[in-house]
Design goal:
- It is a single chain.
- The strands form three sheets. A seven-stranded parallel beta sheet has the order 8-9-10-11-12-13-14.
- The two termini are 41 Å apart.
- The radius of gyration is 25 Å and the shape is globular.
- A hairpin with a 2-residue loop joins strand 6 and strand 7.
- Helix content is 43%, strand content 13%.
Length: 536
């Protein structure tokens, strides 16, 4: 847990209080404390050790509770608040555009689930409620349908963590087991958890205990963390055949024809199919007919971290802390990309802040050489397609990442023109998280992506794959289609030292997209990356 994690818990607790219509003063106090916690530069453990003294908004009532949360890693009051709200109402938080006050209003009028929200909006009943109208009803209907379609899915890291716990339990009990299904293939979201285990259902079931609800032949069925669980039990002699089948995808399996049964390893299966071994990440419908690349990206090939945040905007770690963490992980340089001034909600940098940050970067570079911090910015792409800040300031940044953060609901034609204009800007180096989507929360911008990516190619602009599991944007399917025509950056979009680990998802999706190391600009030396902007 870090400061940002604790602040998010406080914000969520305040949201729940507002949904319940109580504790208005306490909710404001929680939000105030959350904001002030994020602005601190001291580590959370140190803040807790001194009882949060000196943190504005954390008084004698809040401080002991926060210290206990840090010590126990649990927030009992938050669990209590959640327990007082029906699960269906909590689902409404998944709908873009719905805050706690509007959720309370919907709940008071009988909307108790996403299904109810969709039904009411389709019937034109939302617009009749106080504070809503026809326009907001239409946007809520679209957002609620999207949320409902993804309701029973979780983000990839959740699936991986749950699977890791099960695999550990099975290994400790002496069973050979492997991950299968969409989690093994590395999809952005997963709707079920599949494992293959050497053993019989009778042998395996006691290890999984309460997670198993029924047995169908050689398959144990159950549920874990809301995910349907399928455990395929097999003799060791058939492990490879069962693992290929259980991994999928269905479309890819159908394209292979019958999978030979009774083979102990996946390698034997591919030998029997008379084809080279196909990694699990290369078994989607989109990969049918394509050969997996011979040269793949590996962690040691990454020289630079591109797109990280600090306490200058909305990060929870200082420039020094981020730089020292990058050095410890073996990187040669780091591109700091705090938010620009228009993103005031995220502590966007005013010009004076930019100059102050540059001075600190210069001092740190002198101290930490040969490691280097590059002067970057995540500049908002404004509604007309221009970049935040005047040209004379943009010209002085070493790397400019331009990103959409607002206006994501523009029509496709208008959004496309906005992105094309941004790509025509000579100061833009990298198009950041192009669609602005948030996994399981919002679809992001709709645009003519072929036209956008063609313009990026024409103007020699790099396109980011945002590695945050909340974004994973640009969509890997588009990267696959453009893998030989564009250059991509893997941006962890890290807002904390821990967030640097999200580069692992960039590596995974680079493999899934078939990107050669040369096509990933993180493998370039800093000077080559800087030359992108000079060409602009």
């Amino acid at each position: 847990m870090n400061r940002k994690d604790l602040a998010e818990m406080l914000e969520y607790a305040a949201d729940l209080m507002e949904v319940l219509g109580e504790g208005e003063f306490r909710a404001k106090a929680y939000r105030n404390a959350a904001r002030n916690l994020e602005q601190q530069e001291t580590d959370l453990s140190e803040l807790a050790a001194r009882g949060f003294k000196g943190v504005p908004g954390v008084g004698p009532a809040l401080a002991p509770m926060l210290s206990e949360i840090v010590q126990t890693q649990e927030f009992p009051y938050l669990a209590e608040l959640e327990g007082r709200i029906p699960p269906g109402v909590l689902e409404l938080f998944r709908v873009q555009g719905l805050g706690p006050k509007r959720i309370r209003a919907l709940w008071e009028h009988g909307v108790n689930s996403l299904e109810e929200l969709v039904r009411w909006a389709e019937q034109g009943r939302i617009r009749a409620l106080p504070g809503f109208g026809a326009k907001s009803e239409a946007s809520l209907l679209e957002a609620a349908r999207y949320a409902l379609a993804n309701l029973r899915r979780v983000m990839l890291p959740v699936g991986l963590e749950v699977a890791r716990l099960l695999l550990t339990d099975l290994a400790n009990a002496g069973f050979k087991a492997e991950l299968a299904g969409s989690v093994r293939r590395g999809l952005e979201t997963v709707g079920n958890l599949d494992l293959v285990v050497v053993g019989t259902p009778e042998q395996v079931r006691p290890v999984l205990g309460r997670y198993v609800e029924e047995v169908q032949g050689e398959v144990l069925l159950g549920r874990l963390e809301g995910l349907p669980l399928r455990v395929f039990c097999t003799p060791a002699a058939s492990f490879g055949s069962v693992l290929v089948q259980a991994t999928g995808s269905r479309a890819w399996l159908e394209a292979q024809g019958p999978i030979p049964p009774g083979l102990a390893s996946e390698a034997e299966v591919f030998q029997a199919l008379q084809q080279p071994f196909v990694p699990a990440y290369w078994r989607e419908r989109e990969h049918i007919g394509l050969s997996a690349p011979e040269t793949t990206l590996t962690p040691p090939q990454l020289r630079g971290l591109i797109h990280v945040h600090s306490t200058y905007s909305d990060g929870s770690a200082t420039l020094r802390q981020m730089a020292e963490a990058a050095i410890a992980q073996g990187f040669e340089y780091m591109v700091i990309c705090d938010h620009s001034q228009t993103a005031a909600y995220a502590g966007g940098l005013r010009e004076a802040d930019v100059l102050r940050q540059w001075a600190e970067i210069e001092a740190l570079n002198a101290e930490l050489a040969p490691f280097r911090i590059l002067r970057g910015i995540e500049s908002d792409i404004l509604p007309d397609g221009s970049l935040d800040y005047p040209d004379e300031l943009l010209a002085r940044f070493e790397v400019v990442v331009g990103s959409l953060h607002a206006g994501l609901n523009l029509g496709q034609t208008e959004q496309t023109q906005r992105l094309l204009r941004a790509l025509d800007n000579p100061y833009l180096s990298i198009l950041g998280h192009p669609s602005g989507r948030l996994i399981l929360r919002r679809k992001g911008a709709e645009a003519d992506w072929e036209a956008v990516l063609e313009r990026a190619q024409q103007n020699e602009k790099v396109v980011e794959f945002n590695c945050s599991p909340y974004r994973l944007d640009l969509d890997w399917r588009l990267m696959l289609a453009w893998r030989d025509r564009l250059y991509f950056s893997l941006g962890p979009d890290a807002h904390s030292v821990e967030g640097l680990a999200d580069i692992q998802y960039g590596l995974l999706f680079a493999l899934k997209s078939g990107l050669s190391p040369e096509r990933v600009v993180n493998t370039w030396p800093a000077e080559r990356l800087l030359a992108l902007k000079k060409r602009g």
